[in-house]
Design a protein that fits this description.
The protein contains 18 helices and five strands. It is α/β, with parallel strands linked by helices and 390 residues long. α6 crosses α8, α6 runs parallel beside α15 and α15 runs parallel beside α17.
Length: 390
């Protein structure tokens, strides 16, 4: 009898806590704040609500990967550079984010976008022979984004089918998540049982509130207030001045053969390949990869939803890739593949392939340096300003 009473009391406290948290999240925890856009935080990237609630006319999603984690404390990172403007790029991505995951996220948030533009920063390293690694995809997979993608009635059957097939293949390494995904798909196709639908409703509510709690906690740690107000700010940016300052800062550092930032070079020098040609990239190249079809899937989402895309084609670090004997013809094939896809879809293309040998474009082997960030930020800003109505 005592055990039963204890169980009932524990259950009452548990559900009472959940109900209280639900009321708080619904009434108090408004996630809107312009600072959320440039906030570098993985909980935000995975949260449908965290992103969707912060997409106004001065925000466009900018999808990428680990470049967002580098040089955050400098004046050249988008977090800092755009802090004095009305424009706020919604940064989405960290290591292991690639085209398919971004296609799912875009399909999830597309209906919430006031400014129907999107930017995708392409890393050459995504286009390896095997494409996105299944474990990496699973580690960044968001069920709330996937559920919102399935509910998106603007997606064509072809677009949705491709995303579902690729997702099912890559999530084989995570059987519990795959099982839930397949349940969501059965429901979407009108084949779900009563218990499937009940479980989906329960689990989706749990995931949504779990993500909201994570976002709120993260915002508090980062000093970002909930329901923050946008302040009037300057709109003009002097990119030439930024470039001159970036180059001057880099030139003042200790130099190295690859034009890496000095602190990164000191770390990487210990693990640089002991001989030329030892990089696996030099053997595999980037000319053939399933990532190209995943990129097309991202652009199919744009097409279905009336979103104007811009691809930012990152180059390789020519100095370092020459050192590893990565063939120049293989690089050119990658660049041309991207150009062809952009032309096929009518996507804008910020082509930085001519910057392979631009000093200080990179801070290390693959990530944007101070000069590179200024150039990429400028391309994004110009894209945002095109046809902008005052």
């Amino acid at each position: 009898m005592k055990k039963a009473a204890a169980f009932l009391l524990a259950a009452a406290l548990f559900f009472g806590t959940i109900a209280g948290c639900h009321v708080y999240m619904g009434r108090k925890a408004a996630l809107q704040n312009p600072e959320v856009a440039t906030w570098v935080n993985e909980e935000k990237y995975k949260s449908h609500a965290g992103i969707a609630q912060n997409l106004d006319k001065d925000v466009i999603p900018v999808f990428g990967s680990s470049e967002f984690d580098h040089l955050k404390g400098t004046a050249y990172h988008p977090t800092q550079m755009f802090s004095k403007t009305t424009f706020h790029p919604m940064l989405i991505g960290t290591g292991y984010y690639q085209c398919l995951g971004h296609a799912i996220t875009l399909a999830s948030i597309g209906e919430s976008m006031t400014n129907k533009k999107a930017v995708l920063i392409l890393s050459p390293q995504w286009f390896k022979k095997e494409g996105v690694v299944d474990e990496a995809f699973a580690s960044r997979f968001s069920e709330t984004h996937y559920l919102a993608m399935l509910d998106n009635e603007k997606l064509s059957d072809k677009t949705k089918e491709y995303i579902q097939n690729r997702t099912n293949k890559l999530l084989k390494v995570d059987p519990p998540t795959l099982e839930r995904v397949q349940m969501y798909e059965r429901i979407d196709q009108g084949e779900g049982s009563f218990w499937d639908k009940a479980y989906k409703k329960f689990w989706n509510t749990f995931l949504d509130e779990k993500e909201r709690f994570s976002i709120v906690a993260g915002m508090k740690r980062a000093g970002i207030k909930m329901d923050g107000k946008k302040q009037p700010k300057k709109e003009d940016l002097d990119f030439e001045q930024y470039k001159e300052k970036a180059v001057a800062e880099c030139e003042a550092e200790e130099q190295n053969p690859f034009y890496f930032d000095s602190k990164y070079y000191r770390k990487l020098k210990k693990i640089l390949p002991g001989k030329k040609g030892s990089s696996k990239h030099a053997r595999n190249g980037y000319s053939v990869s399933p990532e190209y079809d995943d990129l097309k899937s991202f652009l199919d989402v744009c097409k279905d939803m009336g979103i104007e895309p811009m691809l930012v084609m990152m180059p390789v670090n020519g100095y370092y890739y020459d050192y590893t004997e990565f063939p120049k013809e293989a690089r050119q094939k990658y660049y041309q593949n991207i150009r062809d896809i952009a032309e096929e879809y009518g996507a804008k293309l910020a082509d930085f392939s001519e910057d392979e040998y631009t000093p200080y474009f990179f801070c290390d082997r693959v990530h944007l340096g101070k000069k590179g960030w200024v150039d990429v930020n400028e391309s994004i800003y110009r894209f945002y300003q095109e046809n902008k109505k005052e």
